[in-house]
Design a protein that fits this description.
The complex is a heterodimer of chains A (249) and B (243).
Chain A: E1 7-18, E2 23-34, E3 38-42, H1 49-56, E4 64-69, E5 72-73, H2 81-85, E6 88-91, H3 103-113, H4 119-132, H5 148-160, E7 166-170, H6 178-193, E8 197-201, H7 205-211, E9 214-219, E10 222-227, H8 229-234, H9 239-248
Parallel strand pairs in A: 3-8, 3-9, 6-7, 7-8
Antiparallel strand pairs in A: 1-2, 1-4, 4-5, 9-10
Chain B: H1 5-8, H2 21-57, H3 62-77, H4 80-94, E1 101-102, E2 106-107, H5 108-136, H6 139-147, H7 152-182, H8 194-205, H9 210-241
Antiparallel strand pairs in B: 1-2
Helix pairs in contact in B: 2-3, 2-5, 2-7, 2-8, 3-5, 4-5, 5-7, 6-7, 7-9, 8-9
The chains are: A alpha/beta (249), B mainly alpha (243).
Chain lengths: 249, 243
Amino acid sequence: MATSSNEIIRVESISKHFNDGAVKALDDCSLTIHQGEVVAIIGPSGSGKSTFLRCLNLLEVPTSGKVIFDGVDICDEKVDLDLHRRKMGMVFQHFNLFPNMTVKKNITLAPVRLKLKTQAEADKVAMQLLERVGLPDKADTFPAMLSGGQKQRIAIVRALAMEPEVMLFDEPTSALDPEMVGEVLDVMKELAKDGMTMAVVTHEMGFAREVADRVVFMADGKIGEVGTPEEIFDHPKSPRLQDFLAKVL
Amino acid sequence: MWWSNLFTDMSKASFFNFSFLPKYGAFFVQGIEYTLLLAVVSVALAVIPALLLALMRLSKSRIVKGISGAYIALFRSTPLLVQLSIIYFGLFGVINIPRFNLFGFVDLSRFIPGVVALALNSSAYVAEIFRAGILAVDAGQMEAARSLGLSKWDGMRLVVLPQAIKNVLPALANEIVTMVKESSICSMLGMAELMFGAKAVASSTYITLAPYTLAALIYFCINFPASKAIEAIERRMRRGDKQ
């Protein structure tokens, strides 16, 4: 396959069951993400979007199936997962900044602790990244002093400081006041333009249409449809997707 | 002294017959020091084992979880006096501690078994305090740490524990207050703490009640302001947390 040479994540029929199979959060989902690609994952709440995304860096361990990252099956227990997680940045709905550390410390903690950079190098990179998201003056502030939009931009910077190959976004704008959604989406658009590989669980249909290379529609723990934004938004095939779009657009 | 006459007419059983004070006051001063030493040292010694027990309790391994759970259950479900007696006569019947007086009035051969028993008992309670404190930290904190490639231990040590410790400081201070009271049980084994002092005074002066009234007053004057202070600190910390 021509595309397999630059594939970065390949998910092979993962399922995630809770309560001994009583709840099937994910049911036989497969997807391949290529280098530089922006994949938006949409769907009604409870459809398994977030669980799927969290399976990509194994914050949620699939009950069955494989997650191949950089050619390695990271579900294998012999694999040093921490080593692979470094290369997958994640941004959470509720930011999850460390409230007991300054912004700069939030950003430099992992690179310094994992000996990827000295404190001085990490500080320099942190300042450059903060400059890029327009928050260089917040370096010595604590997260509690920031607005939601600022927190999320810092959270993106914190993930970027690890120089990841992929960025995973779990509903990054869902917890934000409406007027702050734009500033976070702008940073994400910028990232996409710079060629970052991104998987984004989102309710922002405008963003999915404008920025995504491919859109994944999930419903009831299954991957319903995968296609270009045009295919998904303008020519939805399944009634489930048509119904969903009718409600959100 | 001018006020010693005040007591001469009082009955031996009076609540406030403090006529023993001029002669026996030192018993109480030493008793206070001994009591505070017992409480502070045992809670301080309990912190590390308690942290270990709490982490074990949160472990995924059933065996590790079970060991910690059994320890906590054992120490929380049996009386302190029984634990103290077993440790004093059992454990320290085998281990011999030389008679050595610290600060002139703390006999180590009694003090060490007392502190060990109180610390073992306290660690069971403090472990539950720590466990609650760790669980109170949002799960997203550990997830964020792990997503950055930090190990579980690093996430615990660098991210979760510093936040948990802040949450549990008031409860930990309360544990010292509890220990100041509970340590009175050590008088049963001849440790010269406050309660022991009161008993000694009562038996040598035949003033049966007032030494205990005084002991009660002293306990109250230590613990009540201490718990009020802890409450005030707790309120201030909560205000600081608001975003």
